[in-house]
Amino acid sequence: MKNFRKHKQRSRGFTTIPNDIFKDKRLSLKGKGLLCQLLSLPDDWTYSEKGLTQIMKDGSTSLRSAIEELESCFYLHRERVRDEKGRLKGVVYHVYEEPFEPVEDESGNVNYNPIPDDFYYDWMDE
Fold it and tell me: Is 99 buried (19+), middle (13-18) or exposed (0-12) by CB count in 10 A?
């Protein structure tokens, strides 16, 4: 199940990190480190909090606070995908090199879904 969409350009064998990430004073050192780790993982890596705790020294509480920090600064968006009956089918992690801009509609609701409406997740049919 592919549940990660990286929004960046990438070359093999190394990860290019924009300097703006390191200059963003809203991010703690832990948040910056997690963002760099997320950007360095391969596209086919299956993202989950449990999986991240297995490759990092930090525990789940520390990891969760860093994830929440990245979400509050709009570097990360966790999209909860539901089936036709409304049951949670999975979570897609969207990670950005630059903070994404949430869009507010006419009624004042904020849309945190930064992906195109016609984007298809092949794992949704599983």
Answer: middle
Which of 70, 68, 79 has the alpha carbon at shortest distance from 112? Answer: 79
Separation of alpha carbons 35 and 30, rounded Å: 9
Phi-psi region of 55 (alpha: psi -120 to 50; beta: other; left: phi over 0): alpha
Q: How many helices (H) and strands (E) would you count in the chain?
A: 4, 5
**Up-side HSE of residue 7: CA atoms within 13 Å toward CB?**
16
Q: Is the pTM of this model over 0.85?
A: no
Q: For 65-98, what is each residue's pLDDT tens digit?
A: 999 999 999 999 888 888 888 888 888 888 888 8
Contact 94, 75 (CB under 8 A): no
